[in-house]
Amino acid sequence: MLVFCLQAQVIQVKYVNAFENSNHPQVAYWFITSDQHKPTVYKAKIDSFAKFSKYTLVFLTEREGYSFYDSTNMHPIFKDMVAYAHQKGLKMGLQIWKRDFFTDLENTDRLIQEGEQTLDANGEANYQVQAFGAREMNILIKSELFKVYAFKKTADGFYQAGSLQDISSKATAVNAKETVSVKINAGAKLKGYQVYILTQHYYNSCSNFSDQAMKMLLNAFKAYRDIPFDGIGLDEYKNLKIARQKIMDSTGEVFRERLYSVGMAKQMKLRTGKQMDRVLLDMRYAPVGKPEIRISAINQYMQLLRSATLPLEAAVYDLGKKMYGSNTFIGLHNTFHNNLDKDEVWQTGVSWWSIKRDYGHTDEETSTSIQLGVGMSYQKNAMYNMYYGPKIDRIWTKALYDLRFGIRTHYHAANDMQGWGVSIDAPYALAKINPVENAARLLNRFNPPFPAVKLLVVYGMEAIYNWYPNVKNRGMYDINDKLGMDRKSLELWNNGYYHAAVPTDLIEDGRLKLNAKGKPVLNGYEFDAIVFLNPQYAKNSTTQFFQKYVQLGGRLLLEGNADKGFMGEDISAVWTGIASKAIVHGYSLTNVAKLGIMPIQLVDGVSNGPGIFTFTNKH
Question: Is 230 contained in some domain?
Fold first, then answer.
């Protein structure tokens, strides 16, 4: 406390063990299981939170024994829980999972599978396929023929112009739940033609492109609108879960299926004017001399896929603010397996920077550079990383390290009866966590911006999600997994080149822009240099951004070349021009040093701007 008078200044110092929390909540998860519904049980838990922990906002999440969609049962419990928590000065949030109850067949997610045959002298062929590609094959509903095309194949991925025919009417199918058997009789005129066969396999998963998915989710939250929750959230909201990498590693299989739904097809038509069945063909075959057709089809499909969850995330945000007010905390993370170039794009679209939130959110071991990029993409100058683990020492040391970079930990979870990790309300856990959260309160009180890193790494997302035409780049999940963008970020970080990592999406939506000095700026954070990883298939907005950047003298390291744009157009000349003005072309630590950005010099600390520093040390 400071005391001032006219004659002299007297400073009285009052020492406290910890600050009261301010500015940003301290967040935890609480697993609601079948033993938690009794008032004596949940009130004792709330008492424990209030008395012994530093958590200020506890999210309820359903586990064994309960469904939050059962509002008849849960409403009176939640009403009493929240009222009692508020009496104790504790805020409560509600997290609801995506559930697939009573999904109309029209609204199901399907996986499109493909196969090829050559028509014999009579124009006939037989084909059979087994359903594959979902992580949980037990939710398969049925399988059926989708479309059959015939054409004169000239080479891998190409057919003779004018030869393409839709011969679906010439095919008969015997459909079983797990298989489709197809007999084609196209007539002798088509002998020797290649047939491209698409089958669709329905799963009990409500498509995120459907109105039903939106209504079900919003109605689940609305059922509790009269209970004054302090936050609502989604956790790992995603599409149909697809085959696991670990399983395919062991079997040698690859994922070549493609997500499809009626709603997705409608959106494709609305956004591009194209029919989805033709896009699915164009992603694999094009007329001779027209590779741009295949390039654009892949890019447009992947762009649509990546947007699947965004409208629902935005709707939940808007609903939470409408029901509970502008200060309502809207979470949580949509990171799932936290990879750029494996299964994540099929699940969440790798849209971590773009879901509608006030705070950025990630989870588990998401790299710090990506976390900084996510955090800086939102208005709040803090972000949250949901974390759990079997060892308390890993939990608290990571939470402390993350604080240095403006990252608060969302602790997962109290009442952890599933064995995910430490129960973060246990006394031995709180003995380690509370000192870290006292440090978080100190940081929250002074509320500094994110670290003033001066290097920005931009990921060329279009290059990751289109391997064509280089077959060697075609990865397990039908995308280009050879670019190693996240590995380059990690190498930079481990060598002291602290940076924020963001996708080209932020250029497209206008959040990443150039200021009057020609420097890149994201939500007020200014950078002195950019490492751009892989411009292939760049959109016009990306090309124009980097053209202007180098024209204004921006310091650029460019990794990779670009000869084709998003729609398959020739962009080689303009990117040759950009490369010629870059400081250096080609990624390496040696080349990064040429940008004039120094590796971090501080020990256990970062600068948050002029005269502002944050240090953390576990000792």
Answer: yes
Q: With respect to residue 381, please indicate whether it lies within any of the assigned structural domains.
A: yes
pLDDT tens digits for range 448-492: 999 999 999 999 999 999 999 999 999 999 999 999 999 999 999
Verify that 321 and 442 share a domain, yes or no.
yes
Do 494 and 383 meet the contact criterion of CB atoms below 8 Å apart? no
Judgement on whether residues 312 and 170 belong to the same structural domain of the protein: no
298 domain residue, yes or no: no
Question: Which residue from 71, 76, 72, 78 is spatially nearest to 94, judged by alpha carbons?
Answer: 78
Q: Which two tokens stand for residue 328?
A: 């309502």
- Do 72 and 142 have their domain in common? no
Burial class from Cβ neighbours inside 10 Å (0-12, 13-18, 19+) for residue 453 reads buried
Cβ atoms of 275 and 146 closer than 8 Å: no
427-446 vs 392-403: helix axis angle to the nearest 10? 0
Query: Residues for the chain: how many in total?
Result: 619
Q: How far is CA 94 from CA 308, 420, 421, 590, in A?
A: 23, 20, 21, 49
CATH code: domain of residue 463: 3.40.50
pTM value surpassing 0.70: yes
Find the domain containing 499 and state its range. Answer: 455-593
Cβ within 8 Å of residue 617, ≥6 positions away: 604
The pLDDT of residue 6 is above 90: no
Q: Cα–Cα distance between 20 and 380 in angstroms, integer?
A: 20
Q: Which residues pair with 57 in a beta bridge?
A: 27, 91
My answer on whether omega of the bond before 516 falls inside 30° of 0, hence cis, is no
- Does residue 2 surpass a pLDDT of 70? no
Q: Which H, E and C letters describe 122-163, residue by residue?
A: CCEEEEEEECCCECCHHHEEEEEEEEEEEECEEECCEECCCC
What mean pLDDT is predicted for residues 166-176? Answer: 98
What three-state secondary structure class fits 72? helix
d(CA 12, CA 484): 56
The predicted-structure confidence for 90-129, as pLDDT tens digits, reads as follows 999 999 999 998 999 999 999 999 999 999 999 999 999 9
The CA distance from 497 to 368, in Å, is 12
Nearest to 116 by CA among 104, 129, 106: 129
Whether 115 is in a domain gets the answer yes
Phi, psi of 145 (to 5 degrees): -70, 140
| CB burial of residue 390 (10 Å; 0-12, 13-18, 19+) | exposed
Residues in CB range of 341: below 8 A, 6 or more apart: 464, 475, 477, 479, 480, 481, 483, 484, 485, 486
523/513 Cα distance (integer angstroms): 9
b/e 267-294 (16+ beta carbons within 10 angstroms → b):
bbeeebebebbbbbbbbbbbbeeebebb
Whether residue 309 contacts residue 349, with contact meaning beta carbons closer than 8 Å, is answered with yes
Which residues are paired to 149 by β-bridges?
166, 196
Which of 529, 520, 534 minimizes the C-alpha distance to 586?
534
Q: Per the structure, how many domains does the chain have?
A: 3
Among candidate residues 446, 471, 491, the one where a domain is terminated: 446
How do residues 344-390 score in pLDDT, each as one tens digit? 999 999 999 999 999 999 999 999 999 999 999 999 999 999 999 99
Side chain identity at 489, as an amino acid letter? S
CATH of the domain at 68: 3.20.20.80
